[in-house]
């Protein structure tokens, strides 16, 4: 029990270090690769994100979705990757090789589609090497470059707002 508390504390410390060292460089690179991090306890429909990728003119093979499940690896066949708290070690280390490879992909846009305040989800967002990070309203505003204030169940509103802001930032392909 004591070790769990110490592990959580070391991961929080590592998260704060990652956020404070983050260099934000927003350029006008077009969206070619799209990554999504979500919480299975809040939303579990992958088709929403496939539709979003098509709406943003991202090819289906350039979309990667990972899902977090606090109670184990469920529905793994529908997701690119499903992870849980046991995939994390001390000081923000990731034990899962597939999860590490997801974090190493330099996405043009990473969408953090979760509202629940879970350390593992925050760590993934901070550890990602994506160029531009988008999230829905969360208490820690340091994680994302763009925060769209919507309810998690209002996906169509999020989709329209995301498209609008990516167009303003000149990140949508004109085809």
Provide the descriptors you would attach to this structure in a database record.
5 helices; 175 residues; alpha/beta; Rossmann fold; DUF6913; 6-stranded parallel beta sheet
How would you describe what is shown here?
The protein is 35% helix and 15% strand. The protein has 175 residues and is α/β, with parallel strands linked by helices. The protein is globular, with a radius of gyration of 16 Å. The protein has one domain (2-168): 3-Layer(aba) Sandwich (Rossmann fold), CATH 3.40.50. The model has no long low-confidence stretch (mean pLDDT 83). Helix 1 packs parallel to helix 4. It is built from 5 helices and 6 strands; from the N terminus they run αβαββαβαββα. It holds the Pfam family DUF6913.
Compile the SSE list and pairings.
Blueprint: H1 2-21, E1 34-39, H2 46-55, E2 63-68, E3 81-83, H3 97-104, E4 109-113, H4 119-127, E5 133-136, E6 146-148, H5 155-168
Parallel strand pairs: 1-2, 1-4, 2-3, 4-5, 5-6
Record field, number of beta strands: 6
Question: What is the average per-residue confidence, as pLDDT, rounded to a whole number?
Answer: 83
Number of helical elements: 5
The radius of gyration computed from the alpha-carbon positions, rounded to a whole number of angstroms, is: 16 Å
Which outline best applies? globular
Strand content: 15-25%
User: pLDDT below 50 for ≥5 consecutive residues: which ranges?
Assistant: none
In which order are the strands of the major sheet placed?
3-2-1-4-5-6
Q: Roughly what percent helix?
A: 25-40%
The secondary-structure class comes to alpha/beta
CATH architecture, by name, is 3-Layer(aba) Sandwich
User: Which CATH C-level class is it?
Assistant: Alpha Beta
What is CATH's topology name? Rossmann fold
Count of folded domains: 1
Q: CA-to-CA gap between the ends?
A: 55 Å
């Amino acid at each position: 029990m004591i070790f769990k508390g110490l592990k959580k504390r070391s991961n929080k410390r590592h998260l704060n270090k990652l956020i404070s060292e983050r260099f934000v460089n927003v350029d006008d690179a077009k969206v070619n690769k799209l990554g999504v991090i979500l919480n299975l306890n809040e939303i579990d429909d992958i088709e929403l994100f496939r539709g979003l990728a098509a709406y943003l003119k991202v090819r289906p093979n350039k979309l990667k979705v990972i899902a977090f499940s606090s109670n184990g690896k469920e529905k793994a066949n529908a997701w690119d990757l499903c992870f849980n708290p046991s995939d994390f070690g001390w000081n923000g280390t990731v034990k899962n090789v597939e999860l590490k490879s997801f974090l190493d992909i330099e996405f043009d846009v990473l969408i953090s589609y979760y509202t629940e305040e879970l350390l593992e989800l925050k760590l993934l967002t901070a550890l990602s090497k994506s160029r531009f990070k988008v999230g829905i309203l969360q208490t820690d505003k340091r994680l994302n470059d763009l925060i769209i204030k919507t309810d998690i169940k209002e996906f169509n509103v999020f989709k329209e707002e995301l498209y609008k802001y990516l167009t303003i930032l000149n990140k949508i392909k004109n085809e």
